[in-house]
Amino acid sequence: MTKEKTNLEGVFIITPQVFGDHRGWFCETYTAQKFHEIGIDTVFVQDNQSYSKGKGTIRGLHFQTAPAAQTKLLRCTRGKILDVAVDIRKGSPSFGKWVGVELSAENKKMIYIPKGFAHGFLTLSEDVEVQYKVDAYYSPENDRSIRFNDPAIGIDWGTNNPILSDKDRNAPLLSQSDANFVFGENC
Question: What is the pLDDT of residues 112-154, one digit of tens each?
């Protein structure tokens, strides 16, 4: 298992070791000991899975406010996505900046996104399944979104007409958000 830095401090690409032969392949997607060896000691409490039918679907940008903020470990188990993390920690040198990583069933890469970041993804194929672990339970009262096309963030999604939920279409801009993360404090 390898851990690769991104241009956002604390956001990592995790690549598992894959063992294959004439029958197919096998890999460990999460082992606490191996994650500890690469410097990640997050205790995950919930696994989630989403399915998106159509290519060009955007889910996000989502996060939960403190004290119910979530660290996420995501992987795409069917199809492929552009997975995006946005730094929403006030006072951070990378506040409002984003990183995008292609995750797919083929490349088996994962992305680790700590508290203080918003998350979203764009489906790059039909019939996409995404599985992810979180370190805090879902909290409806802390559930928040930021508009996917906020010009202050400037994510290049590569699509002009995405498939969106009403929640994501009507999400506030980052400048209007009540995100309560402060760099170096509560994340």
Answer: 999 999 999 999 999 999 999 999 999 999 999 999 999 999 9
Q: Are strands 18-21 and 24-27 parallel, antiparallel or unpaired?
A: antiparallel
Tell me the C-alpha distance between 35 and 15, whole Å. 11
Is pTM beyond 0.90? Reply is: yes
68: left (phi over 0), alpha (psi -120 to 50) or beta: alpha
pLDDT on residue 127: 98
Instruction: Give catalytic residues, as residue numbers.
Output: 62, 132
- The span from the CA of 145 to the CA of 131, in Å, is 19
CB atoms within 10 A of CB 118: 26
Sheet holding 110-113, edge to edge: 2-5, 12-15, 110-113, 72-78, 128-134, 46-52
Distances (CA, A) of 64 to 29, 91, 101, 119: 24, 19, 21, 10
